[in-house]
Specification:
This protein is of the alpha+beta class. Bound molecules: magnesium ion. Magnesium ion binds next to strand 1.
Length: about 425
């Protein structure tokens, strides 16, 4: 049948598939919170570089409460782990420098990071505050080899933003994400399907994406210790013990992931902003600090466009991927940060059970209009005008002197209260 064979649509499709093999990058900021803090401090002339000393981000130095959210490489050498209580970390390393969180700073760096990615990648999907997937398929003609493209992105971020990243390169999101987690920092790794047996299979099964402590324990009981054991295990048995998750991780262990890099259009959704947090949040104060920073950007954007919103909503995604949102209509349209924030706080308190760890927080506004009049409530007129003037002044100063020039009074008040109570 080979003689005189005419290429069929199937053949062409096959050839196309070969030509357009997907090329996916996973880009991950190294010790994001700590790096961003280090860069910010160096810019302000504060030495030493936090990345070169035992340092962590998390909690408050005076009260020594909270958990480690990010650590320097040196702190890691002392055995300090992300997610552990700061008191434990201090036992391992008594001269640890502890930096309180600053979500405004993280948010700003996150945006700058995403902007650079969008410069190089046709499609970018932000995955968390410090991670993104980029679909780089078909960019070889532009940048050369995948590794060369990754170097280009890495060097641009190093040069313009002064922090380091890891880039994982493969043909799907799962493999790219696994690859970026190999040796750190400032490294580029490939994990193409043909590299799976020697790069991924020898790893502990707990290292596989979506395998948490509970799943790892069950797998170990089944005699599965490495990712390779799982990949070559009996799917029926795995499914029997781990249900749907068993099937997913079995596919992952074999490098199979069918999800695409989504092109998320942030525009025209009204004015909103959300953050997938780098770790699960269970602390109300931390969640509220994140909410304030989201309200800041939403408010500033509304004001920049001369718009006001009549409806505020808060969205929470829990670490079990359950989504919840609440919204509330205002008595009068606003673009005042404090008003948006006060409402967001109420909605947040209604929504959250104060137990389930939070993975994503979002604030959005709708029923946006440019009407410049406000149906004044007689009693709040004076207060509103003051707040409006305050926001306008803040926006101007920030535009002129940078985001850091002014800090919300609430941050300062919080600090004062902590001092007084502590
Ligand atoms: Mg990271």
């Amino acid at each position: 049948m080979c003689v005189g064979h005419q290429p069929s649509a199937g053949d062409i499709r096959k050839e196309r598939t070969v030509i357009s093999t997907p090329l996916i990058f996973h880009i991950d900021v190294n010790s994001a919170y700590l790096s961003w803090e280090a860069v910010d401090r160096l810019k302000k002339g504060n030495s030493p570089d936090l990345r070169t000393i035992p340092a962590i981000v998390g909690g408050d130095q005076d009260k020594r409460h909270g958990v480690v959210l990010a650590k320097s490489g040196i702190a890691k050498k002392y055995g300090v782990k992300t997610g552990e209580p700061i008191v434990h970390a201090l036992k391992k390393c008594p001269n640890l420098t502890i930096i309180p969180t600053n979500f405004e700073l993280y948010h700003r760096n996150s945006q700058a990071f995403m902007e650079i990615l969008r410069r190089y990648a046709p499609v970018v999907e932000q995955y968390s505050i410090d991670e993104a997937f980029a679909d780089m398929s078909g960019t070889e003609k532009l940048y050369g080899s995948p590794t060369r493209a990754a170097e280009l992105i890495r060097d641009t971020i190093n040069r313009e933003l002064a922090f380091t990243i890891n880039v994982g390169i493969s043909t799907n999101k799962l493999l790219a994400k696994m690859a970026s987690d190999f040796e750190k920092p400032n490294k580029i790794h490939t994990l193409f399907p043909e590299e799976i047996p020697f790069k991924m299979w020898p790893l502990d099964v707990g290292e596989l994406f979506f395998v948490g402590d509970a799943a790892k324990k069950k797998l170990n009981e089944l005699g599965i210790y490495t990712i390779g054991d799982l990949a070559n295990g009996d799917l029926n048995m795995i499914r029997m013990h781990l249900k749907k998750q068993g099937e997913v991780i079995y596919n992952y262990a074999n490098g199979i992931d069918i999800s695409d890099v989504l092109h998320k259009e942030p525009a025209n959704k009204g004015y909103g902003n959300s953050i997938t947090l780098a770790h699960d949040v269970t602390d109300a104060d931390e969640a509220k600090a994140v909410l304030l920073s989201l309200c800041e950007t939403v408010g500033a954007r509304l004001r920049a466009d001369g718009m006001k919103a009549n409806c505020v909503s808060v969205q929470i995604t829990y670490n079990n991927f359950v989504n919840r949102s609440h919204q509330c209509t205002l008595s009068a349209s606003t673009n005042v940060t404090t008003e948006i924030y006060d409402l967001a706080l109420q909605l947040f308190d209604q929504l959250w059970d104060r137990r389930t760890p939070i993975r994503l927080l979002g604030v959005s506004t709708s029923r946006v209009s440019s009407e410049s009049y406000r149906q004044y409530n007689l009693f709040d007129t004076e207060k509103y005008e003051k707040l409006e003037k305050l926001d306008t002044a803040v926006d101007k100063i920030r535009k002129k002197y940078g985001e850091d020039a002014i800090k919300r009074a609430r941050f300062l008040e919080d600090k004062k209260e902590e001092k007084e109570s502590g």
